[in-house]
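Reply to dn_fold:

You asked what the input looked like. This is it:
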Amino acid sequence: MTKITKILDTILNWCKTHKREISFAFTAFFLFILYISKILKNSNEAYFKIIGCSTLFVAIVLSFYLIYFSRKSNFSLPKAWLVMALGFGLIRLFIITPFSVWDEYGHYEISYRYSDFLLFKFKSPHLMDKNHADYSNLDIQNNNKTAFLRYKDPFFLKETEKVNKERIPSTPNPVQYIPQALGIAIGRLLHLNFMPLFLLGRLLNLLFYIFCIWLAIKAIPFGKLIIFACGLLPLTLQQAASLSLDAYIIAVSFVFFAYLIKAMADDEPATLKEIIILCVFSILISPSKLIYWPLSLLAFFIPQKRFETKKDWFFSAFAVAVSGLLSILAFSLPSIISQSGGAETKILYNGEIGWSLADIIHNPGKIINMALWTLRYTWADWISQAFGSIIMGLPQEVPVWCRQMHLYILVISALVCYTANSEHEVLTKLQKFGVAIVILFVVAMAMFGELVIWTPLNANSIEGVQGRYFLPIFPLILFLFRNRIFVTTRNVEKAVFVTEIFLQFYLVFMSVNLTL
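and this is what came back:
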C-alpha cells in the first residue's frame, strides 16, 4: 500500500506541475479523434486522409515543443515569437492552398514578373514557364483539397516551354514584392515546378514578416506583448503565410510604430540615426497603401526636450512626414491621378458610374453623410473581420469563441503594465491624443480610398472597406488603453504564449477539417 501511495502521489504531483501538457493532450486527442471520425464517414481518397492526419500530427508535436519551450528559464518574448510564428506559419503556409487568399492570384503573377528583373531578364517580362502558368486543380479564393493533387507533380521542371501571359499591371511600389519575387527567382534558378516554386515565394514572404515583427518586439520599449498578440491574430498569420502584400504592410507598420514609440518614450537626446530610421520606414510604408502615411505624423509627438532647440524638433518631425509624402509622389502619383478620374465620368470595375474628382468636390455633404452612415452600421463588422470572421478560402468563419479569446488576449496585453515601470510604460495625454488623431485619419483615408475605387455614385454608403485594412493600426488602438491604474507584478507573457498555442492549433485543425 505504501508503494502504491507513493506512486499515486508521484503521478498526482506530476499532473499538478504539468497542467499545460495534460490540458493540451486532452484537447489534441479530442480534435484528432473528431477528424478521424469525419474522414472515416466520407469517401476521401487515402492521399487526402494521409495529408490531413500528417498535418495534425506535426501541429501536435510542434505544440508540445512550444509548451516545453514555455517552461524554459531563459524564456523571452522575442524568442517565443520566432518559434511560434515560424512553426505555425509553416503549417499554415502548407495547408492554405494556392490562390485561396485575397488577390493571391494577382500577387503571384506580379511577383513572377518582378522575379524576371531579379534574374536580369528584361526583354520578355510577359513570358512565363508553361508549368508555372498551369493553374489546374486550383480554385481562386477557395481552399480546395484538389489543390493538394499538385504535390504529385514532378518536383523539378522537365520542360522550359514559354507561354505568353499578360500580367496584371505593375504595382506602384515594387519594394513590397521583393520577398515573394526573391523566393520565386530562387525557385526558377533551381528549375522548380509550380508548387515548390509557389511555396518558396510564400516562405520568403513569411520569413520577412517574422523578422520584422521580431524586430518590432525587440525595438519597442514597452507593450511588447501587444505586438506579439497582434502578429498572431488568425488573419494576420494567414496573410503572412501567403503571397499577399498585407504581410509587408502589417510587418513594416509594426516596426515603424515600434521605433516611433521608442522615440516618444526615450529620455536621451535624439540622434541623426534615429531620425533617419524613422524616415526610411515612412518611405517604405507610405506608397504601399496611402492610408498608412498618417503614421508618420506621430513623429511630431516625440518630446521636444529630446532636441537641442524647438527648430531641430520641428524639422526632424517634418522630415519624417515629408519623406513619406515624397515616396508617395515618386511611386503612386500616376495611380492617384488615374483613380481620381478628373472631371470625366468614371466607370467602376462592375460597369457602374463611380465618383470622379468633380463629383467629390461638388458633393462634400453627401460624402460626409455616407461616411457617418458607414461608420455607424459597419464598424462592428470591420472589427469582426479583422479577428477572422472572414478567413478567405474557408467555407466557415473562425468561431466566435476563438475570436473572443484573441480579443481577450489583446485586452490583457494592452492593460497590463509592470508596477516597477508603470510610469514609463504609458504614453502621455498629448501623445495619446496624437495616436487617436492618427487612427481617425487612417480610418477616414481608408473610407475615402474605397469611395473612389469601389463605391458607385448612387450608393448610400461607402463600399469595399474591409477589416483587414485596420490590422496595421491595431497596436495604436491598444496603446490608447494602456494606463497607470491597471498594473500587475505578475508576468503574463507565458500565460498568453500557452493560450496562443491552443488557439493556433485549433486554427490548423479547423483548416484541415474543412479542407481535407
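Strands lie at 127-129, 162-164, 346-347, 353-354, 417-418, 487-488.
Hope that clears it up.
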